[in-house]
């Protein structure tokens, strides 16, 4: 009686896993393209793909073991068949494809493939000591001076920083696509909004060469501006940069 | 027993989820080919053009647009000096992307679309980041700079009919491309190297570069077939790109557009350049060798060098196509890039250079990507186009000359040394064909100069970076286009032993399966039900 209810349970589970694979491989790049308004399909990264597949298989197994009855049904597919001819065909197919699949896995894992490079980095290392004490000369000034410094700073920002960081400070300048470590998007609340003015002063003055090695200075295109911009100009750029991005620097803890 | 099974499964599930979260968090490096912007054609219903809307628009303009387009709309904002092309002068009718006849002003919808989409490869950003209302308001304001808008002659002229893309249509388009002399500007292969463009640029010093039609990602007015059809029909005001509305029948404009679409390619990029192993004993230095067809090409985007002074704000080379192959002794690279001219002067010469660290890094640490640093030197293979004194100031490098190849070391932009003659081991040749340089550089995998030269090994990710010079853009020295670090991988041949492993795996898989089924059939699951 149990057999009658779902003698093909195993096949359904396998079909569901295959559907998942098809979805990840062919449908989801298109779906993401539409969701994220990109002009190119967005393929699922291979490591993610592997994990989704493992999850899918596990989910199938969890489902098949939700009751003893189900589990018995699930396994019953492998028993000698007295059922329709399609069942014995599917059985044979399954018996052949399992070892083939195992062989294929071993093959694809052991061919010398392109290991993709690991490139992890820390975006915000600690501020070097000599920059800790500095004060932005414009931040505490009267409204008029502040406004002037922001205007001046914006022009400097547009002239020197725009090709990389973009004229909206969104990291989308015309050169941004060429640097694999992308110029920072200052509108992102996780970037300059989480640090103090001095931190930016350090980054602008010393650029990539000033970074410690946990921040992979060798990949960063951020120039060091110390030979080209005066200190005042850098402070003005910082004023203009925060204003363009529409964020505020982190407030310094007042130790009074 | 089933319960225990389930617990284990849930445990595995949790581990899986954690890994997924960490897996995505580490994808910090973006893939260039997915990032280019597109021309967005949808337009929402219009906002009424009232004096209030114009006044609001002025505020937006004076916050967001003036520093490029100028406070009076003359395209002379204070930030414009590092830009090419220059920002649009709104007091003249220089509008490029329009659906209206040549020398008419664009429609409001045209302006809305271009402001929303921005212009790829130029300073003009996309503005879908501000609200639709704000976009209408600011465009009503920029219309006030030019009286022509008030005369109300912005009438859409492009028809909507279309002709399907068939091989015949593309072939007809190719004929028309010749008949209508498009090649005089765009070049025979569409690389933007036609003689007329070159004359405009280098003889009259006019700021017009005909579009490289093979780079589909750089079309200003969009690269869909409808967009190209519109561009061919209406032209770009105040540029050499004219309107073909009258010169070509509607159907023919579709044919040309289909042809242009067929040569416009997407950028196919990758982080790893895979060097192909070839069996041949000799690697001929020949860009047209058939074997190159089998090596996977990778298009690497370049930016102007603005990291150290002197800076190149307006580069003309924006991508290099790279392939690599190797045999048991030697490795060879093919570097191809589009360049409208082959004009060499003493200082301003076309060139390319390939940069490696002096040794394969053992950890994450690499030398600085722009010419190395004090703790890590780089090895440079440089090629410069042929030039000879006594030939006059400007020469065209002939195909018979291979150009000048040299090997250098650098620790910074200023600390560059040419290796002594006895350690010059790179050979190569560059030829210029139809608007494209093809340069082959070759070296043995290992050399004696282990301090100054990279020693290649198979199966390792070896950092590589590129730079290129366009003499007619006055590129020289640090004025060049540069790339970030990429990697080259000398692919290992598939070892024969792998098939033994696979066979063992299949046999093992089959025996586990047989054992499982045999057991299952001996103790059918019904027994378990009775437990």
TrEMBL record, chain B:
Signal peptide: none annotated. One of its GO terms (molecular function) is metal ion binding. The keyword Heme applies. Pfam families: Cytochrom_C, EB_dh. Residues 52-146, 168-264 form the Cytochrome c domain. The keyword Nucleotidyltransferase does not apply. It comes from the Bacteria. Keywords: Electron transport, Heme, Iron, Membrane, Metal-binding, Transmembrane, Transmembrane helix, Transport. The chain crosses the membrane at residues 498-518. This is Cytochrome c class I.
């Amino acid at each position: 009686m149990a057999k009658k209810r779902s003698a093909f349970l195993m096949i359904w589970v396998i079909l569901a896993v295959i559907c998942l694979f098809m979805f990840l491989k062919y449908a989801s790049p298109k779906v993401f393209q539409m969701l994220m308004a990109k002009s190119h399909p967005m393929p699922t990264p291979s490591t993610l793909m592997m994990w989704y597949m493992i999850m899918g298989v596990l989910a199938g197994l969890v489902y098949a073991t939700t009751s003893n009855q189900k589990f018995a049904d699930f396994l019953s597919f492998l028993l000698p068949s007295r059922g329709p001819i399609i069942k014995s065909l599917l059985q044979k197919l399954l018996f052949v494809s399992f070892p083939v699949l195992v062989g294929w896995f071993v093959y694809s894992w052991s061919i010398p493939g392109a290991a993709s490079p690991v490139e992890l980095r820390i975006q915000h290392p600690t501020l070097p000591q000599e920059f800790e004490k500095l004060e932005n000369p414009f931040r505490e000034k009267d409204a008029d001076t502040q406004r002037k410094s922001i205007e001046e700073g914006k022009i400097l920002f547009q002239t020197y920083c725009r090709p990389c960081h973009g004229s909206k400070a969104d990291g989308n300048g015309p050169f941004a696509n060429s640097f694999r470590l992308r110029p920072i998007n200052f509108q992102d609340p996780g970037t300059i909004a989480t640090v103090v003015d001095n931190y930016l002063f350090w980054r602008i003055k010393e650029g990539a060469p000033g970074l410690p090695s946990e921040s992979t200075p060798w990949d960063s295109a951020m120039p060091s501006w110390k030979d080209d911009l005066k200190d005042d100009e850098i402070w003005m750029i910082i004023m203009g940069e925060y204003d363009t991005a529409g964020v505020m620097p982190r407030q310094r803890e007042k130790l009074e | 027993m089933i319960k225990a099974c389930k617990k284990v499964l849930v445990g595995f599930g949790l581990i899986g989820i954690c890994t997924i979260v960490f897996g995505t968090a580490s994808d910090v490096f973006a893939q260039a080919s997915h990032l280019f912007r597109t021309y967005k054609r949808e337009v929402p219903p219009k906002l009424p053009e009232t004096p209030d809307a114009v006044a609001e628009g002025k505020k937006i303009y004076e916050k967001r647009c003036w520093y490029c387009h100028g406070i009076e709309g003359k395209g002379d904002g204070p930030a414009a000096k590092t830009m090419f092309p220059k920002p649009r002068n709104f007091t003249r009718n220089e509008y490029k992307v329009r659906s209206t006849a040549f020398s008419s002003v664009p429609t409001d919808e045209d302006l809305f679309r271009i402001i929303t989409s921005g212009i790829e490869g130029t300073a003009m950003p996309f503005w879908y980041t501000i609200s639709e209302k704000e976009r209408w308001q600011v465009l009503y304001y920029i219309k006030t700079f030019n009286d022509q808008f008030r005369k109300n002659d912005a009438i859409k002229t492009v028809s909507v009919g279309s002709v399907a893309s068939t091989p015949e249509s593309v072939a007809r388009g190719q004929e028309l491309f010749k008949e209508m002399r498009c090649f005089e500007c765009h070049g025979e292969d569409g690389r933007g190297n036609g003689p007329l463009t070159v004359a405009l640029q280098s003889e009259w010093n006019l700021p017009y570069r005909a579009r490289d039609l093979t780079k589909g990602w750089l079309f200003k007015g969009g690269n869909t077939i409808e967009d190209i059809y519109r561009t061919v029909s209406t032209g770009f005001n105040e540029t050499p790109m004219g309107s073909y509305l009258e010169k070509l029948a509607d159907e023919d404009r579709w044919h040309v557009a289909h042809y242009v679409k067929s040569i416009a390619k997407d950028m196919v990029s990758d982080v790893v350049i895979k060097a192909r192993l070839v069996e041949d004993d000799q690697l001929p230095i020949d860009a047209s060798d058939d074997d190159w067809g089998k090596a996977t090409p990778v298009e690497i985007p370049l930016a102007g060098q603005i990291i150290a002074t002197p800076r190149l704000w307006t580069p003309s080379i924006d991508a290099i196509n790279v392939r690599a192959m190797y045999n048991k002794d030697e490795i060879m690279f093919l570097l191809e890039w589009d360049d409208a001219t082959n004009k060499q002067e003493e200082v301003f010469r076309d060139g390319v250079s390939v940069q490696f660290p002096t040794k394969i890094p053992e950890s994450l640490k690499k030398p600085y990507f722009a010419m190395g640093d004090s703790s890590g030197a780089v090895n440079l293979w440089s090629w410069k186009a042929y030039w000879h004194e006594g030939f006059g100031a400007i020469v065209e490098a002939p195909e018979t000359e291979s150009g000048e190849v040299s090997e250098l070391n650098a620790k910074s932009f200023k600390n560059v040394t040419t290796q002594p003659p006895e350690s010059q081991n790179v050979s190569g040749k560059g030829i210029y064909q139809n608007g494209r340089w093809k340069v082959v550089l070759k070296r043995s995998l290992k050399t004696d100069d282990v301090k100054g030269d990279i020693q290649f090994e198979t199966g390792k990710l070896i950092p590589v970076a590129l730079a290129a010079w366009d003499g007619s853009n006055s590129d020289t020295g640090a004025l060049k286009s540069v790339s970030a670090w990429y990697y080259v991988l000398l692919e290992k041949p598939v070892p024969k032993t792998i098939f033994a492993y696979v066979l063992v795996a299949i046999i093992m898989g089959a025996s586990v399966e047989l054992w499982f089924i045999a057991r299952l059939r001996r103790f059918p699951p019904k027994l378990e039900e009775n437990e």
